[in-house]
Structures are given as C-alpha cells and as structure tokens.
Amino acid sequence: MIDFRYHVVSLVAVFLALATGIIIGGFSLRGEVADQLNGQVVSLRKDKAELQNQVNQGNASSKKRDDGVAQLSPSLLAGKLTGRQVAIVVLPGVDDSLVTKVRRTVTDSDGKVATTVTLDDKWTGSDYADSATMRDYAAKVALDPRSVKADRLGGAVLARALTRGDAGARGVLDKLADSDATTVEPSDGPAASAIVVVWPGMVDKDGQAKRWAAVVSGLGISVDAVVGVSSGSASTNDGLSPDALMTRLRDTPDVVSVMSTVDNGSLAIGQVAVGLCLRDELAGRSGQYGMGRDASAMMPQVEPSAEAQ
C-alpha cells in the first residue's frame, strides 16, 4: 500500500515541475514580451507626435484665419457706428484683452466708448440688486420697480442710468460709482446709444450663471440696443463646455427677442459680429451669433438685406 510519504513526495515533485516550467517559460518569453511592449511604446509615441503635429497645424491655421479677419475688420466695420456712443459693462473675471478688443471694434466702426462699467459679484446678491436703495434708484431713472422682476432690477437700473443722460440718471451713475460694487470710467462720460456686456465663459457653479443671467437680462430688456458678448467656452475639469450664461440667455425668449448675443468674442470674427450686432440693434434688429449650436449664424450680414431694413 502506498504510504503518506509517497504522496508528499509526489506532490512536491509536481510543484517543482510547475515552478521549473514557469521559470523556464518566463525566461524564454521575456525577450518576446519586452519586444512587443517596446513596439507598442514606439507606436504610441509616433501617434502622439502625429496628433501634436495636427494640433500645431490647426492652431497655425486658426491664427492665420484670425489675422486675416482682423485685417479686414476695419474695412468691414467702417461707418457702422458713426456718431454713436457705446457703454461697455464688464462682469467679474473678464480678461482685459477682451475689453480691449471690444473698444477697438467700437472705434473701427467709427463709434466712441462713452463709459466702461465694471461690476462686482455683489450685483448678483438680492440684498443689493433688489434693495430699497436700488428701488429708489429706479424711480430716479423713471423705472417702476414693480414692472421688472426683482433679480433683473439692478441690470435695468444700470441700463437706464447709462443711456438716459438726464440729471436723475447721472446722479444714479455717480451713486453706483461711489459704491464698492461698481467702477465707472470715466465717471462723467456722455449718455450711451448702445451697451455691450462682456463676460468670461461660465459654468453654472452654485447658480452663478443663473444670477448673472438675471442681471444681463435686466440690461437687455430695458434699453433699445444691447449686445451680450461671451469670451467663449468655459473650462472645466473635463475640458471645454458651452458658456452657461450664454445658454441661459438664449433659452429666455423675452430677452433674446430684444438683445443680441455673440458667443465667441475672443476671436476676430466674433468681434466683427459685435460691431455688426451693434449696428443692427440700433436699427431695431436682434440676433444670436457665433459658433454655438444655439447661434443662428456666425455673424450678421455685412450689408443687411432690404427685407431686414
């Protein structure tokens, strides 16, 4: 009869054989596996280099396109705003370069920048925008605060203060400039014929875009000529996403029916659209322009059709 020691010896022999096979197999495959891995690394590096080259070519093409549009811009916009004063309202986080581009667009169109107003985040708080003080300001610019939604009141008051040009409007603008929520430069600029509102691409973090949309809506519905301009898409951890403030405005029919928007203001073609939008707004026409899916076209017609006029 086979005793227990025989079984032990047999099992040990089996495991030794397996271990030997694994070791020998490992040594024999090591070179082949290493070669395969090295080949994959080389292929991935090649793919990465090709993709980077495509990105570089795309960026170079985009720059050439923007440079070409920028060169054409003065001739496309010349005379579109002759004799017009334009106020620029700047929301928090806007890069100075965007404000500079809007200024240049106005001057290329033969208009003038009347005033630049920079707003603080306090404007989105109900204790500021719908305060007793703001309702008092509304009366001074001939605005019934009951006729405007509470969260739009601040924007409506600011729009009228910038465009009316009477003593009441001037007094309100002076009061706003004296607060820590608003900067007005110059403080004694003339009344504006039109307003451009600029903002950075936003994500709707903690309702930020919703609150600013109310302020911009108040501006847009209160005077005849307002253009809202976004720098472009918003940066997130997952990449770029559509500007949430622009999306909210374009989803609000009573706003977009009376004000124009441009969703790519950081680009040269976006600035051409800004100038043409100002021309159209002053003629009573509104539209939504840019590269977003909710834009009706890249920009307004350079020369509006007889039907549009």
Automatic annotation (TrEMBL):
Protein name per its UniProtKB record: Copper transport outer membrane protein MctB
Keyword Metal-binding: no
TM region(s), chain numbering: 6-29
Single GO BP term: copper ion homeostasis
This protein's UniProt keywords: Membrane, Transmembrane, Transmembrane helix
Keyword Transmembrane: yes
Top-level taxon of the source organism: Bacteria
Gene Ontology CC, one term: membrane
Region annotation Disordered: where it falls in the sequence: 289-309
